[in-house]
Design goal:
alpha+beta; 16% helix; 25% strand
């Protein structure tokens, strides 16, 4: 594993944790252990640009260890990912941030491009999960096509030629050769097209399902699911020894547990070359007998077994982990191995597996608490038992030389910007000159927080949104959690008395309002007389006795200020009231709109263009389709995706009517509000909150009210983490209009009606922007009132 820029090995049971690189001020990434257990490959920036290094598995910890082999890569800033060794431990395949896949021969140093580049980067779905054939002669890999889907290609190491294996009419990913070289397995979906770009919010509407397929590599090989006659086998014929290959090699077991190192395995017979008949190979694809599911990861195990992760069919915003299962060719049955799995990997010999389990997700316990996963190494042939094989990182330590790390991270940030920033000219910034200019400041800083400050200053000349740096190894003071009751107070007769109770609103499964729970019957005007037996007069800060109570049951004595009708109740304080107060603000706005419009207008608040906005829109918009018009409020919108979904729904118009025998006339589409629409935005609406009002105006759905939006419409993707866990961003995608002009970034979206939130009016309970939006919608309703539709006269075909 990599930690703080060094590569470590951790023993499964007994043995040392080793820092095999031990290079303060040098960043090493993406370690991969060779199948023979003797070498570890990783990418290192020791030369100033990332290269691929191959070190002995003991590093420098053992006297006489062989030297590290270094293989230069590109001569310009680039980042490399997912090195995968060939089974013969001689070659490595990996990919870079420029959409290339490479093959490196570690015996000759030859670097080769595998096939053509992927077509799409940006926000399009990517998949670089390549697979080696058991004879190390073939590589299977997915490549993005012009239709935004992936096809599986086969690359011949000997000829250097690539052949398209699967049709572009489906999304094919996760190739895996079976260990005998007869089949190639992969996952394919025929309904993934609408989700091929995660930036589009319309992609959140669809549940992608898939099947697991196999292709016979040689034309004469029978299908893995060919029909069989249930005849008795002659003695010695048929099923192989069930235990063969399932247990650990005994000759290595004791040595491993004693010293923690990989030992050279006994010599094995030469691997037989596999046969691949490319002609007609697409016609030899069959689906394995498993139900349609949400399959997301695939690996081939021993004896024709297939391991796979399956997610619950609950859409994009699921919070549950995946289930790991194994399908065996011998009995064609599926066995569940583990739940709440975030990732898994089979060992080179197929006997063990490494799992990342969601915290609290071991065994049958539901995941909870968040945070990093726990890691276990367990046998691959049986369900995981709680507590088995847990890896301990107690001895994983690195000695840090701060100034060396700070210097490395300083140059790393410049390298990241050169590798990822969408504009190769960096908005006119001379990055080399700026790097030299700020370097003396790094030499003189005294803390990691200072380095983040330097990042902010040095990146300012790019003059672009979404460019920031944060985090890192910065000491934090110990925080004592508070406790809040979800209420406002006023002082009466020397007591804290309740002026308002925040309930959390209707149909809200997440936000728990402490004083609004059924059975408590707490009323506005009642006073909090004591907390956990401590009297609470007005000269005590009420938060003092509530300190540290969040999530815990406490006793509150409540009643009139004079103590009359006092009673004790049990409540659970919360850590934050932000969500309760936000729901209250939303529902308060909804009531204002309802009152100002005499019940004719709906109100929908969109806090972002991600999961929160998606949830709010679906909840509030479709529940108000009985309204004649709607106010869409995206003030303070924090962004996320591009909300094309909102705009599509808001732009619906009636296509037809339907007259039932009973009930009122209906129409198609049914789920929409067809009257006037007004949107509100402000100067804090940004990113996706910039894009939404821009799209709203482009679609001519109605006027925009409020203030000019933030003006940050570029996109950021995943960026390699810095040495100490800190982060920087690098906008790698930029927006321009259908007219061919850069737009919105550094300017924002202008409202049609500019309205300030005058402090005096707001303090008096007004919302000038909301009130203006309502008046505009009502004005449109007065000009174009809703008309009650009547069906035509019923036909009489006998007249």
């Amino acid at each position: 594993m990599e930690a703080h820029g060094d590569i470590f090995t951790v023993a499964v049971k007994h043995g040392p944790t080793r820092d095999i690189t031990n290079t303060s001020g040098v960043m090493e990434r993406e370690p991969a252990w060779s199948p023979d257990g003797q070498s570890i490959a990783y990418f290192s920036d020791e030369s100033g640009l990332y290269e691929l290094d191959v070190a002995p598995q003991t590093g420098n910890a053992v006297a006489g260890a062989t030297a590290v082999k270094k293989f230069p890569l590109a001569k310009e800033p680039a980042y490399y990912f997912d090195p995968k060794w060939s089974p013969d431990s001689k070659k490595i395949v990996f990919h870079d941030n420029r959409l290339n896949i490479y093959l490196l021969d570690t015996t000759t140093g030859k670097l080769t491009s595998v096939g053509e580049k992927n077509v799409y980067g940006g926000f399009s779905n990517e998949n670089f999960d390549v697979a080696w054939s058991p004879d190390s002669k073939w590589i299977a890999y997915p490549r993005s096509m012009k239709n935004h889907l992936h096809a599986i290609y086969l690359y011949s190491v000997d000829s250097g030629q690539s052949t398209e294996l699967t049709s572009a009419m489906g999304e094919s990913t996760e190739p895996a050769f079976d260990r005998d070289g007869k089949y190639l397995y992969f996952i394919a979906s025929t309904n993934a097209g609408a989700t091929s770009d995660g930036l589009d919010m319309t992609s959140d509407l669809y549940q992608v399902t898939s099947n697991i397929y196999a292709v016979t590599l040689a034309a004469g090989t029978a299908s893995p699911i060919a029909p069989e006659l249930e005849d008795e086998k002659a003695e010695g014929e048929g099923k192989p020894d069930a235990k063969k290959g399932e247990g650990e090699h005994n000759e290595n077991k004791d040595a491993k547990e004693a010293g923690g190192d990989e030992k050279t395995r006994p010599a094995k017979p030469p691997v037989k070359p596999i046969k691949v008949d490319l002609d007609g190979i697409q016609s030899r694809i069959v689906a394995l007998p498993m139900p349609v599911g949400v399959y997301v990861r695939l690996a081939a195990g021993l004896k024709g077994s297939v391991y796979f992760l399956e997610r619950p069919a609950s859409g994009r915003f699921t919070e549950r982990g995946s289930t790991l299962s194994r399908w065996t060719m011998e009995d064609r049955k599926t066995e569940k191995l583990a739940e709440h799995v975030e990732a898994f990997e089979l060992s080179a010999n197929g006997e063990k597996m490494l799992l990342a389990l969601a915290r609290g997700g071991e065994g049958d316990m539901p995941p909870g608490g968040g945070g990093p996963p726990s890691w276990v190494i367990v046998p691959a042939n049986a369900p995981v038992k709680p507590g088995d094989g847990t890896l301990s990182f107690a001895d994983l330590k690195v000695k840090v030389e701060p100034h060396k790390e700070w210097a490395q991270m300083y140059h790393e940030v410049w390298r990241i910007e050169r590798a990822f920033f969408y504009d190769p000219n960096f908005h006119g910034t001379d990055t080399n000159a700026e790097e030299r200019h700020f370097e003396p400041y790094v030499d003189s800083i005294a803390s990691r927080a200072d380095l983040n400050y330097v990042f902010q200053e040095m990146l300012s000349p790019f003059s672009v949104g979404h460019l920031r740096g944060n985090g890192g190894e910065i000491p934090e003071a110990k925080h004592v959690p508070g406790g809040l009751l979800g209420a406002d107070y006023e002082i009466k007769d020397n007591h804290y008395c309740i002026a308002r109770i925040y309930t959390g609103g209707e149909f809200n499964p997440r936000e728990k309002a402490p004083l609004a729970q059924p059975g408590l019957n707490v009323q506005v005007g009642e006073c909090i007389l004591a907390i956990n037996g401590q009297d609470i007069p007005a000269d005590i800060d009420i938060q003092q006795p509530l300190e540290g109570t969040a999530g815990k049951v406490i006793s509150i004595r409540i009643g009139a200020a004079d103590g009359k009708n006092a009673r004790d109740i049990s409540v659970v304080p919360i850590a934050s009231e932000a969500a309760l107060r936000n729901v209250d603000w939303i529902e308060g706005n909804q009531k204002k709109v309802d009152k100002l419009s005499d019940g004719k207008l709906g109100y929908v608040y969109l806090p972002d263009t991600g999961g929160g906005g998606f949830t709010n829109f679906n909840r509030y918009y479709f529940a108000q389709t009985d309204k004649e018009g709607v106010v869409i409020d995206e003030r303070f919108n924090a962004g996320g995706q591009v909300a094309d979904y909102f705009v599509e729904v808001l732009g619906r118009h009636i296509e037809s009517y339907w007259a039932p025998r009973y009930g009122v006339i209906e129409h198609t589409p049914n789920a929409a509000i067809y009257g006037p629409k007004v949107m509100i935005a402000n100067e804090v609406s940004g990113s996706g909150g910039d894009a939404l009002p821009w799209l709203f105006k482009q679609a001519k759905l109605g006027p925009l009210v409020g203030k000019r939006t933030w003006g940050g419409l570029v996109g950021i993707g995943a960026i390699p983490v810095l040495m100490d866990g800190g982060h920087v961003t690098s906008p790698s995608v930029a927006f321009f209009s259908p007219k061919g002009e850069w737009d919105v970034e550094n300017h924002g979206v202008e409202p049609d009606y500019a309205v300030e939130q005058d402090p005096k009016e707001v303090s008096e309970g007004h919302d000038p922007q909301l009130e203006k939006a309502v008046s505009l919608a009502m004005e449109q309703l007065s000009k174009h009132p809703a008309v009650e539709v009547q069906h035509p006269a019923y036909p009489n075909y006998h007249k």
